[in-house]
Amino acid sequence: MENDQITFGSVTRWLKIKHLVLVNSLAKTRNMHTTAEQMNVTQPAISKLLRDLEVLLGFPLFERQTRNLVLTELGEFVARYARITLEDTESFVDQVNKLRKGGHGYLKIGTIFAATSVVLPEAIASIKRERPLLSIEVIEQTSNHLLEMLEQKKLDLIIARFTDEDCQPFEFTSLGPEPFCLVANSAHPLCQLEEVPTEALSEWPWVMYPFNTPIRQRMERAFTKFKIVPPTNTVETISMQTFLQLLQSGPMLAMLPESMVQSQLQNGQLQILNTPFKVESQDYGVITRKDEPLSEPTRMFVATLLEFARQRQMATEEKHCSQLRKSR
Fold first, then answer.
1. CB contact set of 284 (below 8 Å; sequence gap of 6+)
2. Entry pTM
3. What CA–CA distance (Å, rounded) separates 92 from 89?
4. Who contacts 133 (Cβ-Cβ below 8 Å, separation ≥6)?
5. Cβ neighbours of residue 254 under 8 Å, at least 6 residues apart?
6. Is 222 helix (H, G, I), strand (E, B) or coil?
7. Domains of the chain
8. Which of 6, 18, 75, 203 has CA 20 to 30 A from 239's CA?
9. Tens digit of pLDDT for each residue in 183-205?
10. Angle at which helices 73-100 and 17-29 pack, to 10 degrees?
11. Rounded Cα–Cα distance for residues 301 and 295 (Å)
12. In what order do the strands lie in the sheet with 170-178?
């Protein structure tokens, strides 16, 4: 076969997994005897298998030297293919075994912080009860960064805020509105006022989301609407921990989703300022790539998210109705 060009059809007829195991082992050990031991065959059998493979390919894979074997240039290419194919095969076997035991592969989720404090933990706990071997990776980032990762197929789905400008390559299913509140350390001087005038807000330092995030863009529109000079003494971050630490360490203000600060409001660390300045709520939800079928575990996880969101919305509405009844 030395003068013939190999074809896909010919390779599928004679190339076997043991050929790939042979090349991968020899590429690592550079030694016939060691490879024979690893493959549990005799050294003559290894020599024949390698010779047969080289004849079928039409070129040598190794240069035979006194003490070891050295990959040829084409041999390095074949060895790389063997390694990748064997790794993929090992992954295939692992996934099949997980499927048989109730697992279901791998799910990579991108999320904004607000979702991690509301529906996401419940949904993950639920699906893990049904599929304990399903591997789930959660990546927390800003909405715009998550959308980029989703478009690049680095994520299976994301839970994020959505704007009309983002819509073209994606499908969006709302999980519910995300109301915002203006908060400060409970010892902040503005917390002593019954109502905080809007003009006083720009006099204090702020912790804010970066300018290219949906929530920051809504804040900028709100500043314009209420004729407030945007604050210049600011710190920008997407880290919830940084938000909380800065709010606790000094007289700073922050506009945050209510769900993110519920525990701090309840224990008295933070307080919502009573002010006319409001930022309109924005829906967050499940975002997937448009016109691309979802894998079975992704479909199941999305359905779980939507169900928990529906239950949470019903509970919120019932609580609101109960409060209205008590106030009459």
1. 112, 114, 115, 159, 160, 161, 162, 174, 175, 176, 178
2. 0.57
3. 5
4. 98, 101, 102, 103, 104
5. 182, 183, 184, 206, 207, 208, 243, 246, 247
6. helix
7. 8-100 (1.10.10.10), 106-177+283-327 (3.40.190.10), 180-280 (3.40.190.290)
8. 203
9. 999 999 999 999 999 999 999 99
10. 120
11. 10
12. 135-140, 106-111, 157-161, 282-289, 170-178
Residue type, 195: E
Model pLDDT for residues 5-30, shown as the tens digit of each residue: 888 888 889 999 999 999 999 999 99
Q: Rounded to an integer, what distance in angstroms lies between the CA atom of residue 223 and that of residue 278?
A: 9
Confidence of residue 312 (pLDDT cuts 50, 70, 90): confident
State the alpha helices, DSSP H only, in 67-112. 73-100
CB 130 within 8 A of CB 227: no
Q: What is the pLDDT of residues 67-81, one digit of tens each?
A: 889 999 999 999 999
CA distance linking residue 159 with residue 217, whole number of Å = 19
Angle at 144 between CA 219 and CA 112, to 5 degrees: 80
Residue 250 corresponds to which amino acid?
G
Closest to 185 measured CA to CA, from 257, 244, 133: 244
Length of the chain: 328
Residue whose structure tokens are 């706990």? 125
